[in-house]
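User: Sequence recovery, please. Input:
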């Protein structure tokens, strides 16, 4: 039912954002990575906290996730992503 949206609208949206990352890479502001896969990983990493909240609560032995859990998730994610944007050398 949403195949057309995914193949047209979403694909165009991703292509526009991928061009930004490619521009940053060309300017040396970002290390070279496939921008489409990078966006997929960004989305999946952040969406996991919404889609898998119950599993995360079980893994962290919580009845509900705390603000500190989200803050730790952000800090962990940034630790993984930050090297893509640090200056080489």
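Assistant: Recovered sequence (89 residues):
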């Amino acid at each position: 039912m949403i195949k057309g949206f995914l193949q047209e609208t979403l694909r165009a949206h991703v292509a526009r954002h991928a061009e930004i990352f490619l521009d940053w890479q060309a300017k040396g502001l970002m290390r070279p990575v496939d921008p489409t896969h990078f966006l997929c990983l960004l989305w999946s990493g952040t969406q996991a906290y919404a889609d898998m909240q119950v599993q995360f609560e079980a893994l962290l032995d919580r009845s509900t996730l705390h603000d500190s859990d989200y803050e730790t998730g952000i800090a962990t994610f940034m630790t993984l992503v930050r090297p893509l944007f640090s200056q080489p050398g």
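The chain has a mean pLDDT of 93.
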